[in-house]
Protein: 3D domain-containing protein
Amino acid sequence: MKIKLYCRRALMTLLFICALYTTISSISNITLADMKVWAERVQQETNHPSENSLKKSNLEQKTMNEQTYRPKTLEEAIDFDQYETATVLATGYTAGIESTGKTSEHPQYGITFSGVKVKRDLYSTIAADPDIFPIGTILFIPNYGYGVVADIGSAIKGNSIDLYYDTVDDVYSQWGKQELDVYIVEYGDGTLTEEALKALNEAEALQVFRQQYIEQ
Structure:
């Protein structure tokens, strides 16, 4: 009796499977032969990945690596070793009376020798001896950023430079006085305009780093 019951259940299950396959086949137009070919391809791809699959895998890995490593500072993003270096004594200054002798009411307050306004930005205005670094010279100063020579000063002679900061507190807390090697990115021609300085600061490729200097 039990054997007949088991046989009946097996027959019903087989009939159900056949009916299910017939339904799926009629809807999707997929046959057993198609399923066999698909299964063989899956097995083959598992054991021997195709060239396209390998390329896709390598591309995905490369993308993941690029997303994982992104330079956080200009020093990491740019190879400054390609530039000439110079050892300088760098101090900090402001536009205020303590550095320039001018008050905020003075008509030339905050105006550099080149005619541009002092600025702490991706490319900041700095002062230097024009016989060493002509106006318009671009330096990269480690731990400060890019500096564009826009100003001169009676106390700035030889390999001395003055780095602009917005406040006296910034000068003392962020810089003070340091002797270090700077990178000479480009020598100036003796001139600098607001338009040229603006173009440097708005260079699209470096905008990701700009806030690091504006918000210091």
Notes: The longest strand covers residues 84-93.
